[in-house]
Design goal:
This protein is mainly beta. It has one helix at 80-93; strands at 5-10, 15-20, 23-24, 33-38, 41-48, 56-62, 66-72, 101-113, 116-125, 128-138, 144-151, 161-162, 167-169, 172-179. InterPro entries: Lipid/polyisoprenoid-bd_YceI, TTHA0802/YceI-like_sf.
């Protein structure tokens, strides 16, 4: 039996998907907090007509489409060359050649207020599946904004470090998505 509702195709045409990193360690001031855009991603949101629990979200993101859009902090501003090197390093850490996609499949959606809720499911990074949770709110402009945190080490990723560990990428990485479902 099919559940009545609305299907929405999602991707860069109707939203953004970014990853936010932070730095730590004794030389942390030398590094940058990064905003990295995922340029190629796609998915579907199904909103069940009368039963939010029957709604679903699926997203697939291509790891070869990462692009550093901003680096804040640091001793010197990020140059385009630095951004390209960071993107290459991220691809290596994520083992993007062997695992070119990250995938999220929801297992439950719960309203926690009139304009907010939680989407829970499974996130697969580098072939390692772990639970993932997005806090979702509706913005003043009517867009949906979701935020969550991924622990790199939970997916077998050793966070980037330099200068013998004095500069390290923090293990928690923020994920932010913003959508206009129209």
């Amino acid at each position: 039996m099919s559940v009545p509702g609305q299907h929405h195709r999602i991707g860069p045409d109707c939203g953004t998907l970014v990853v936010k990193t932070s730095r730590q360690g004794l030389a942390g001031r030398m590094g940058h907090d990064l905003t990295i855009e995922v340029r190629r991603w796609a998915g579907e949101v199904f909103v069940a007509e009368d039963d939010l629990a029957a709604s679903t979200v699926t997203v697939t993101a291509e790891m070869g489409s990462l692009r550093v859009v901003e680096g804040t902090g640091g001793a010197v501003p990020l140059m385009d060359r630095d951004k390209r090197e960071i993107t290459q390093t991220a691809g290596k850490l994520l083992d993007a050649d062997r695992h070119p996609e990250v995938r999220f499949v929801s297992s439950g959606i719960t309203a926690t207020g009139p304009d907010e809720g939680v989407v829970e499911g499974t996130l697969s990074v580098r072939g390692v599946e772990r639970p993932f949770r997005l806090q979702v709110t509706r913005t003043e402009t009517g867009r949906l904004r979701g935020t969550g945190t991924v622990m790199q080490s939970d997916h077998g990723i050793k966070p980037y470090s330099a200068f013998f560990g004095a500069l390290r990428l923090a293990d928690p990485v923020g994920v932010e998505v913003e959508l206009d479902l129209g």
